[in-house]
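Q&A log
Question type: sequence-to-structure
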Amino acid sequence: MRVFAFVFFLFCILSCQPESPQTAEPIDQASPVDLVEPLIDAANSRWFFFSSACRPFGMVNLSPDNLVGGTWGTGYRYDVDTIRSFSHVHAWQLSGISTMPIGRSWHPDQGTDAYASPFSHKREIAKPGYHSVWLEEDGIHAELTSTVRVGMHRYTYPEGKDNKILFNLSGGQLGPAMMTDGKVSLVSETEIEGYTVNGSTVRRPKETPVFFVARFNRPITQMDGWEGSEFKTDIKSVLGSVCGAVLEFHAMPEVPLLMKVGISYVSEEQARKNLEMELAHWDFERIREESRADWNNMLSKIEVNGGSKEQKVRFYTDLWHALQGRRIISDADGSYSDFTGPKRLKKQIPLDSSGKPQFNHYNSDSFWGAQWTLNTLWHLVYPKISEEFCQSMLMMYRDGGLIPRGPSGGNYTYVMTGASSTPFFVSAYTKGIRGFDIEEAYEGLKKNHLPGGIMSKVGYEHNTEKGGGIEAYIEKGFIPYPLYEEKYGFHQDGAGQTLENAYQDWTLAQMAKGLGKEEDYAMFTERAGSYRNLYDPQSGWMRPKDHDGNWLEPFNPLKYDDGWVEATAASFTWFVPHDVQGLVELMGGADSFANKLNFCFEQADDHGFVNPDKQHRDNYLNYGNQPSMQTGYLFNYVGKPWLTQYWIRRVIEDVYSGVDPHSGYSGDEDQGLMGALSVLMKMGIFSMKGGTSLDPIYELSGPIFDRVVIHLDPNYYAGGSFEIQANNDPASNPYIQSAILDGQSLDTPWFYHRLLVDGGKLELEMGPQPNEGWGSEEQNAPPSMR
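Response status: OK
Response body:
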């Protein structure tokens, strides 16, 4: 029977070979997808930072792993010349289904390094949806592509080498989780199934399995495997906390061995369904091109002209980052695993009239800082994605009682602080993205802002509700630091939490007002002024207070963390996005405010606006992390928009212009946040309040491109497209001299979102010197809380 099957599959393989050799070069060099360079900053990547063979938000994100067995520096690392595996999950707090083609015998006693292989970047191609490398140890050409939930591999073995594929389902792989259990079973001559279990971590408390089904275009001639230290040959299955399998196939030199791996967080059967629904054929090139087309469709929503090729490469790579860090965790038929309760439950996303899931369920890191990045970019350019994320978070609210601020595989993680999902929902609501239950969303968001909600918990505080200090915040108008002698979670830094809560309270107040909930509007508006309680006029900085209201002593505004969440007092003082004019008044007026802020930028300029290294965090500003992202646009509020234009261009040049593997994001990229910020700054638009006012606005800086066209989604915005035209070489001339919006003179450094989505054109005249008269009158400042 095996001989007959082998002959049959040999015939299928030979008859399905492409008529001409595949080409490594893209077909259309002008397409945005071909400008993306995944290797930017790849020397500094984390396991979930780098991606290649992946669809937008794909459950499968298949790429090589150079380092394994560590929390941060694992996954693809450009300066490591060895590949140890190809794995299918590179998600925040999750990894799994580690595979490796080998051309020789291997035994567990040799250790996992024995099947690793050197490779050279000279024979590597990494593009959105595709990765190709040559494994030099055995001379194997490995190629990867994927659908949303299925990874597809093409391995070409040289003559004289075994044709084997190894599955390692145990040990420390990527990120913080250890694989605590695994299984591989031989289903047929061309199929295996199994799972691996991501052990619990301090961030993701419940063990989370990843199930898989793998199919091959040739019969498996033998399966060997190991359980613990015991190696077994010619077996049907392996199972245990330390286990894996080695599959052997008939050697067919230079004839590709194809493998399809469907995954699921629900079951092997669901993984099989995903495979069958998304990839019923064996045409690798078709999937590669479809993946490329998917990415190109998404990236083409923003069209840029002018600037250098390097600037375009970086722009579209930034946009690509903003669309691939957060992962789908529901199956093609809408099945998903709910981890919000004491045990894992299989559940179903509601289906539409055609029987398809109404939305996808998503895994994500925190939305901390997303008000200035993903919220603004997604809600404008990809509103359907924004709507699905709202629907996904609301489903977790129904399942577990809280809208999450960063779920992992269906687990609550309580990552970071505050209620960072609130601005996401509110800015969707204010922009008319409302394909979800608005009243239910408000109910869940309000719960998060009260005792027992998400504001009661700090980072990874799973079993208590103390670290958030919400009771003290409501009673005193600030969260004391230190709050307790005991640390109940990460980031128990009361001053930073207070400022964050105040902004998020203001955003929820806007939604309450829009829904006619006047008492809630008054309550949350009053709480939004809590930031004033921490301004110390003597030092001129926001400053932590203890339980009795005494200022923190000793006080150093450049001391990292000391009451501040991943920041210093100097950088967090500016975190009052909802009431900039209130902060201006506290600081003694516009000139005093602008001079102090300008001084901070001058100091930050000395170290490139980021932390020079992770050990030196005592900075005035840091564009390598979230709390300082908005600072450059604050000059628009105090009559000095030319300083916004100057400093934003300096930040772009120093922080967001690198296109090599050793630079590019200069800090905590956090699944697209920095990429999204870079895209917005290069288009010259921003949103200080994160688009959460009832009539949201965009603030201006100088774009780097001659022309930017945003192609609007007609299902949400009727305007067709919006064009930003920057005349007189904006790449070299950063200063706005004058502006015309839809044929009318624009004298303000901001305009309304409703005008943008109605379609039209913003024309900017740029120059080499600042025009201090444009947009500088007091009445031209963007609206603030007061």
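Response note: The two ends are 81 Å apart (CA to CA).
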